[in-house]
Amino acid sequence: MEPPDARAGARRAPRLLVLALLLGAHPGAQAEVHLAVPSLVEVMKGEPVALNCTPQGAHDHFVLEWFLTDRSGVRHRLASAELQGSELQGTVHDSRGRSPPYQLDSRGRLVLTEAQVGDEQNYVCVVKAGAAGSAEATTRLHMFAKPEATEVSPNKGILSVVDDFAQEIATCNSRNGNPAPQITWYRNGQRLEVPMEVNSAGYMTSRTVREASGLQSLTSTLYLRLHKADRDASFHCSVRYHLPAGQHGHLDSPAFRLTLHYPTEHVHFWVDSPSTTEGWVREGDSVQLFCRGDGSPNPEYTFFRLQDKQEDVLKTNLEGNLTLEGVQRGQSGTYGCRVEDYDAAEDAELSKTLELRVAYLDPLELSTREELSLPLGNSTAVNCSVQGLPTPALRWTKDSIPLGNGPTLSLNSITFDSAGTYICEASMPTVPLLSRAQSFKLLVQGPPELRAEETQPRSEGSWREGDEVRLVCSARGYPEPKLSWSQLGGSPAEPAPGGQGWVSSSLTLKVTSALSRDGVSCEASNPHGNALHVFHFGSVAPQTSQAGVAVMAVAVSVGLLLLVVAAFYCMRRKGRPGCCRQGEKGAP
């Protein structure tokens, strides 16, 4: 007999089975399957991407399916996979013409090897796990594309600053990006805050086009009212595009400038080269005059010279320069430049003048010939005259030593030291490179002036017979004196070291007792007289080597005499020649 509890449990078992079946069929059972699916996946164009759909928890068996949802909401089955044992077997059913086709990896991820514009869709992952239920999740794929290099097309025409409305400046293009980029305009590196609404000060227009590839291109055109200050302005546009993870990139266009038309307000006129700080130019130089107006485009320039209050037109051109080749002193005067700009304001000063001053310096003239010959002790004055503008300064020099300033050189009681070359130099402090010089040579006539170099004995204050001595004799005068010696062997006269008109001759000889008695004379002579100098040597001692020979001769003679006396003594003592032999005995 069964216990009561057992019978009750038997009756409840069918009811529990029915309840379990009902709960399995209820939609709430899907909560048992959970999916780890990102809602948004971002990828750059051309890069691979894998859409993840991973069931969480442990499941012995499930089926995974990928669907593509089009814009109308219709789902298209792309691929599926079934877990069999420990392996997931996948199949791609429909790539919908995509190349390369979709792929399904071993983890059930939908792989797109090269992201394309058409891949920007909603992808639905559905997982069915039998009794555990099913679940689905949607992933949105967002594809980014970096646009091509930014292109700008500036207005190539001449834009007038006189117009009081905004003119087209340039058009900026950014092609094949995704999503659509943004364009910003800059002037001199500063962002231009211009509205999209048309107005006279400035605005911009923008147009976005979706290309056949699905990528987007943006075109922006800038309009501004221009001013004269914009003549040197640098413009460019910058494209700001989107990147994954909220990042951004920038692509700047090349900078460009505009060609503006604006009237002349000021004129500048100057001497370009060569000139000094005081405005002088040298006679014979090529001089350039430059004229510049601040209008654009370059106006026509007219150069003229004022003579007797009349304009003598010299040249008209668009370059704004006038060259005076080999300018002469007669071309000094007032020169002018006029800008022919008919758009300029009535009160604009379009003409300028300047004074051209030509500096010149004529050759110098001296009151004497190139050579001036004067007797010794005389005095004279030499004048140096010059013509030049501005007034030149004169100075005299001799051997690079300044003698004084002014046109007159005074020479008083001249000596032989006064002889030489004198130079008169003319210069202009305000025109540094303009100078001239003229010179003359002074010759001082007179009898010779003699100078001898005394030679001292070699030792002990006296000369010895046969000592060698070199005698030097120098003289000066005009005409140049001749030098002669009382002994033969004198060298020809040559200019002496130190200059100043000295010539010298030398004589090398040996000292003898005759020279000590008579001396050696040197004579200098020219047509105005002569001068004589005698070299004396004092007492001359005999040579040391001769006295030694005499002493030796005396010593030898004495030795021979003693030898003869000794021999005579021995012969007389014994009466035979051998008495003085060494072996003999007895008293001497």
UniProtKB/TrEMBL annotation:
Q: One Pfam annotation, family name?
A: Ig_3
Q: Which InterPro entries does the record cross-reference, listed alphabetically?
A: CD80_C2-set, Ig-like_dom, Ig-like_dom_sf, Ig-like_fold, Ig_sub, Ig_sub2, Surface_Rcpt/Adhesion_Mol
Q: Topologically, how does it sit relative to the membrane?
A: Single-pass type I membrane protein
Report whether NAD shows up as a keyword of the record.
Answer: no
Q: Keywords in UniProt for this one?
A: Disulfide bond, Glycoprotein, Immunoglobulin domain, Membrane, Repeat, Signal, Transmembrane, Transmembrane helix
SUPFAM superfamilies to which the protein is assigned, alphabetical: Immunoglobulin
Leader sequence residues: 1-31
Give residue ranges for domain Ig-like. 14-142, 147-257, 274-355, 363-435, 448-526
Residue ranges annotated as transmembrane are 549-571
- Coiled coil ranges (UniProt) are none
Q: Gene3D superfamilies per the record?
A: Immunoglobulins
- Compartments, as annotated in UniProt: Membrane
Matches recorded under PANTHER family: BASAL CELL ADHESION MOLECULE, CELL SURFACE GLYCOPROTEIN MUC18-RELATED
Q: What is this protein called?
A: Ig-like domain-containing protein
- Which classification does the entry list for the species? Eukaryota, Metazoa, Chordata, Craniata, Vertebrata
